[in-house]
Amino acid sequence: MARPTKSIHGEWTSRWAFILAATGSAVGLGNIWKFPYITGENGGGAFVLVYLACIAVIGIPVMMAEVLIGRRGRQNPINSLKSLAEEEGRPKAWRWLGAMGVLAGFLILSYYSVIAGQALAYIPRLFFGVFEGVTPDGAASIHSALVNDPERLLAWHTIFMLITMFVVTRGVQHGLEKSVRFMMPTLFIILVMLVGYAANTGEAFDRALHFLFDPDFSKLSANAILTAMGHAFFTLSLGMGAIMVYGSYLPKKTSIFKVSVTISLMDTGVALLAGLAIFPLVFANGMEAGAGPSLIFETLPIAFGHMAGGAFFGGIFFLLLVFAAWSSGISLVEPIVAWMTENHGLSRRNATMLSGGIIWLLGLLTVFSFNIGQEWTLFGMTAFGLLDYLTANIMLPLGGLLIALFAGWMMNKTSSAEELALGNGVLYHIWLILIRFISPLAILLVFANLIGLLNI
């Protein structure tokens, strides 16, 4: 199969368009929801320091590998890996790595949409003061009322899928690029507003700064290190085909190294700003930093409900959460749409409607797993728990490991050096050592920990 020199879907109009789109893919619920609570659970500053180191040795090298495969292949992840494997004289079976990434994104969006729908539902609740003066039991009751009502949960899931599909139908430049050019600057503006609001908590803001940036290594466990390694990998949307398909739209002259570093820095910046926005509110209200997954939907609404201007800024916070989820949702559906248009001749509109419709239907399993289907279990897990475990613990780390091995060992050094445009210098050899040895070993440790092979 001949390798195309340009994607049939078009290209990003500039380097910054790709950076914004890929950052939008990376920035999601993981940054604003998961990062603060796992930082809280694992002691703060020391965990953040390890996380930053892991971004450097795992995240950036694997992102560079995924972008270079996408741009060199110029097709959807399945076809790109197939044509590059042929070009390098490797088995065509490598295309199944692309298929696994596309499938992972497909499955993730089915439950991600339901969680994002809950964030959508909270926007009017916060703006209209539903949480003013609320007690912990009251906040838990409001959240339970939402997730225990399948009709309401389904309605919000449907709205989120519709707005996601609307953007994807409009194509690379008129849909994906225009949306991220609006959403990402807006997201950063909202984050800065929220940090400014949190700064008014005085002593609590100082405590948050100390908690996030003053490392106490006595609080750092082996499990915390593995958690930091895992989150550094997952936060950049690696292993799910999104960065690869976005890379296929990247102009040839753009430096893969520079954009990968920029995206990683912006993604990390969002996570740290989210921590600075959230922890002062938590501390100011005498709550625990390690509140766990309930931090966003139960703990924070209590904080907003007891502060001056909390209704407005709480609504703004959940708007931020929706923008982050929306930009990620777009990137999750793009690989399957690209595959349908390239391999089956469907128009972008029809491919989006078909794939989006199937994802929406699959999302019903997650909707019902919170209420009428709580007792439907497989391997002791609900549908939501099973999909989350399968994708996050198995498909994504396995995909990331294989991407590293393909780029590091299956691709000829001449091919990777040419695509990365780093010459034969120090930077290229550092990347080669990381992608061949360090990153795969780190991902293997994360993989083993996630599936329970390590007893730490």
Describe the structure.
- The protein contains 18 helices and no strands.
- The chain is mostly helical and 456 residues long.
- The longest helix is centred in the C-terminal third of the chain and has 35 residues, at 310-344.
Characteristic key phrases:
mainly alpha, single chain, 75% helix, Amino acid/polyamine transporter I, 456 residues
State the gist of this model.
The protein has helices at residues 15-26, 29-41, 45-73, 77-87, 95-127, 136-147, 150-169, 171-199, 203-213, 222-234, 242-247, 256-284, 299-305, 310-344, 348-369, 383-410, 413-420, 426-450. It is mainly alpha-helical.
Please give the oligomerization state of what you see.
Answer: single chain
Computed CA radius of gyration, to the nearest angstrom? 21 Å
How do the helices and strands follow one another from N- to C-terminus?
HHHHHHHHHHHHHHHHHH
Strand content: under 5%
Work out the helix count.
Answer: 18
According to CATH, what is the topology? Answer: Amino acid/polyamine transporter I
Q: In angstroms, what separates the terminal alpha carbons?
A: 47 Å
Low-confidence spans: none
Number of strands: 0
CA-based shape: globular
Question: Mean pLDDT, as a whole number?
Answer: 93
How many domains, as an integer? 1
